[in-house]
Write a structure and sequence with these properties.
Helices cover 33% and strands 17% of the residues. With 661 residues, it is α/β, with parallel strands linked by helices. The chain has three domains: 347 residues, Alpha-Beta Barrel (TIM Barrel); 135 residues, Rossmann fold (3-Layer(aba) Sandwich); 123 residues, FAD/NAD(P)-binding domain (3-Layer(bba) Sandwich).
Length: 661
């Protein structure tokens, strides 16, 4: 029997016939045009039959509401007054952008895929400051962005509806196969639908029928612009999961109305950008803390009530989960993004029975940042041209010391190019710090990555020497052409104490938590990312009473927002005491002396059994100078080069492995 029999079935959406039940839903990888086209090509070649693209910039997202006039020479600048899309000047300007967006559709079509152009306006959930006021149905700020929006007038609503139609017409000219109206994620049409944002008393507020009016008017205007027989789908939200917000029966009713209007499909994605809506609930790019398929129940309820195809997206990372959703009849198709960032050929691999070779999405959300797309599991994501595996003309003997993520990626890449690679590690298994994190951390599915990379290493004809400490005589005896030091980082002693064993570092605790007393302080120092939060979460889950210190204004300030919100919520619910702007100074007799990192005011925390230091990692690169003195070719990567995150370690390893000649 062929694997994934439900996902591989063709399906019709309106006039389109698609080869399978997986959609690469709309997302913004923030790449230059040339890199984006290659990024899309890899995924279209990898089996994606249906792709979504953001066409909001074709005269919708930039709709101006503030004072001033547009200067076309500056129109592409974020802080410029954009051309008004309803003016002659504005229409000509946005028409001139069509070739850029046509190139996206051409890439999809060249590999047999179909594509829809998604039209959206963020309303009060706008994620960047373009020096224009944000807008909303009412003067209700988005909880994450906190803008004070301008309430739309009736005339402004009519203008926006017309802008949607003009944008859709450009999508037709650009060669798109359909249009998708975005009414989820707290964006403008969702704001009209939801009583949380819509407090209007006119024809656009109050009853559900009135709150649906804006979306219906957009649909009708777009239908008029694109003609009958052209696919129009709608991305809808799930419930708001907040008292007084949208409920399941509202979503079903809106879906039925859209079906009656002639929509070709409805697609469901729940939550807002950071998950804040009357409290922290669901982010639309949910981290691994969230069980896969959170939006499937809503899709299933709608599917029972409508006769058009239903698509569901949101935290669906595994093909087994996607297959079960379609097999149960919860939805007709599944939308995936992060799984296809992690492996652009995941569909082709899975459908041909090579599921074990799929690069896994671990749900760490490193890809979802305000920068170019990146993936801790797949360093090639967004860098496809740079990361091609090219056979080496001169195979070398490469010794890689350290089997953490940097060393593993380097060894695999180098071996795949034809180098003879020996991988050495003092541990008896591959993985480095990821071994402990896979057992303790719930923020990301590190275990999935370990299983994948270990299989890849074993397929690559690499000689493994595990349980062996690499020292100078061993390296000299091996006689390598090049040595790669991926030896990680260590914690430096930085907190005085007169109680042996009472001050530990994070690595010690993750490997053996029995060393930690019942009342523990996690000293996060200046670390503004995951480590202090993950350690505090782990210790709280195993029953410790935890105080988390950070020398920063708040913990995790550099962390992706959806992960930060849900982690802080978990810590608070577990009773973790979070103390910002607080540095650990000295531990003695159950009392931790502290210092305010801004004022230098001394303080203390009483009744402490153990202190765990998270900050203060330094490179473990001691072998490098000696090896270089011997005249060896030496490369240092990962934390041994500079202590950072898994994302940087795998990228270092992949880049070096592909460039060794």
């Amino acid at each position: 029997m062929d694997p994934f029999p439900y996902l591989r079935q063709p399906i019709s959406l309106g006039p389109l016939t698609l080869p399978n039940r997986i959609m690469l839903t709309t997302h913004g990888p923030r790449l230059s045009q040339s890199r984006y086209l290659r990024y899309l090509e890899e995924r279209a070649r990898g089996g994606v039959g249906f792709m979504g693209f953001n066409l909001g910039p074709l005269g919708l997202m930039q709709f101006p509401f503030g004072p001033g006039r547009a200067f076309l020479a500056h129109a592409a600048d974020l802080d410029a007054v954009p051309p008004h899309p309803l003016t002659v000047e504005g229409r000509a300007y946005y028409d001139s952008l069509i070739p850029t967006y046509r190139a996206w559709a051409d890439i999809a079509h060249a590999h047999g895929a179909k594509c829809v152009g998604q039209l959206y306006h963020a309303g009060s959930a706008q994620h960047s400051d373009n020096f224009q006021p944000t807008v909303s149905p009412s003067a209700v700020p988005d909880e994450y962005e906190r803008h004070n929006p301008h309430p739309l007038t009736g005339d402004e609503i009519a203008d926006l509806v017309q802008a949607f139609a003009l944008c859709a017409a450009r999508a037709v000219v650009a060669g798109y196969d359909g249009i998708e109206l975005h009414a989820a994620h707290g964006y403008l049409p969702h704001q009209f639908l939801s009583p949380l944002f819509n407090r209007r008393t006119d024809a656009y507020g109050g009853t559900l029928e009135n709150r649906t009016r804006f979306l219906v008017e957009i649909y009708r205007a777009v239908r008029s612009a694109v003609g009958e027989g052209f696919l129009i789908g709608v991305r809808l939200t799930t419930e708001d999961y907040v008292t007084g917000g949208l409920e399941l029966e509202d979503i079903v009713a809106v879906s039925q109305r859209l079906s009656e209007e002639g929509a070709g499909y409805v697609s469901f994605s729940g939550g807002s950008y950071a998950g804040l809506r009357g409290g922290a609930n669901l982010a639309y790019v949910a981290p691994a803390f969230v069980k896969q398929g959170p939006n499937a129940p809503t899709a299933a309820a709608v599917k029972r009530a409508v006769n058009i195809p239903v698509i569901v997206a949101g935290r669906i990372a595994d093909f087994d989960v996607a297959e079960a959703i379609v097999a149960r009849g919860d939805a007709d198709m599944v939308g995936m993004v992060r799984a296809l960032i992690a492996d652009p050929r995941a569909i082709a691999k899975s459908f041909s029975g090579r599921n074990g070779s799929v690069i896994p999405c671990i749900g760490g959300n490193e890809c979802h940042y305000g920068r170019a797309v990146a993936c801790a599991s797949n360093p090639s994501a967004g860098r496809e041209a740079e990361m091609e595996i090219v056979a080496t003309p001169t195979p070398k003997r490469i010794l890689v010391v350290g089997a953490g993520p940097a060393g593993l990626e380097c060894a695999a890449s180098a071996a795949e190019r034809g180098h003879r690679v020996v991988l050495v590690d003092r541990r008896t298994e591959m993985g480095g710090m990821l071994i402990s994190l896979a057992e303790t951390a719930q923020q990301a599915d590190y275990g999935k990555y370990l299983e994948y990379i270990r299989r890849r290493i074993k397929r690559s004809d690499i000689e493994l020497r595990l349980g062996l400490e690499a020292d100078l005589p061993m390296i000299e005896n091996f006689g390598p052409d090049a040595v790669v030091l991926a030896t990680g980082a260590r914690y430096r002693d930085q907190l005085p104490t007169d109680i042996p064993g009472s001050v530990l570092d994070a690595a010690q605790v993750l490997e053996d938590s029995s060393q930690v007393g019942s009342r523990v302080v996690v000293a996060g120092g200046l670390d503004d990312h995951l480590p202090p939060l993950l350690l505090a979460d782990f210790l709280a889950r195993i029953g410790r009473r935890v105080t988390l210190l950070t020398e920063n204004i708040a913990p995790g300030s550099a962390l992706e927002s959806a992960s930060l919100v849900i982690l802080i919520k978990r810590l608070l619910e577990a009773g973790v005491n979070i103390q910002p702007t607080t540095a650990a100074v000295r531990f003695s007799s159950g009392v931790l002396a502290t210092r305010n990192s801004l004022t230098n005011t001394p303080g203390s925390i009483d009744e402490v059994d153990s202190v765990v230091v998270v900050a203060g990692r330094v490179p473990n690169d001691g072998l490098a100078p000696t090896l270089k003195e011997l005249g060896l070719e030496v490369h240092v990567i990962g934390d041994a080069l500079s202590p950072r995150r898994m994302l940087h370690a795998t990228l270092d390893g992949a880049r070096l492995g592909r460039s060794l000649f």
